[in-house]
Amino acid sequence: MLPVVEWRLIVANVRPLQGSLRGGTTLTILGDGFSLNKTRNSVMVGEHPCELESVKVTELTCKIKDTAKVHVVDNSGVHPCKIFY
């Protein structure tokens, strides 16, 4: 019979709770059970990856890249979906 291996991952705190939509915010995730191997940890903020900067068994730090969409606005005065006669 094979031995049972159990891995407990605990996330106790994430800070800061808000940051810029333009990226650059460094997150600190406190907990226990994180891997010391960067490639075995993955952090997502919604659908956006957070690039790991440092790893400890009890703490991860990562930096969020730009999460905003860029919208181009001009002043032509016409909405492309509405045509008036």
Q: In brief, what are we looking at here?
A:
This protein has a domain at about 20-65. The protein is built from no helices and five strands.
Q: Please, could you describe this protein's structure?
A:
It contains no helices and 5 strands. It has 85 residues and is mostly beta strands.
How many separate helices? 0
What structural category do the secondary elements indicate? mainly beta
Overall 3D form: elongated
* Low confidence ranges: none
N-to-C series of helices and strands: EEEEE
Our estimate of the beta-strand percent is 35-45%
Total number of β-strand segments?
5
What value does the Rg take, in angstroms?
A: 21 Å
Strand order of the largest sheet: 1-2-5-4-3
Mean pLDDT over the full residue set: 85
Kindly report how far apart the N and C termini lie: 79 Å
Pick out its properties.
mainly beta; 35% strand
SSE blueprint and pairings:
Layout (H helix, E strand, L loop, with lengths): L9 E6 L10 E7 L11 E2 L2 E9 L2 E6 L21
Antiparallel strand pairs: 1-2, 2-5, 3-4, 4-5
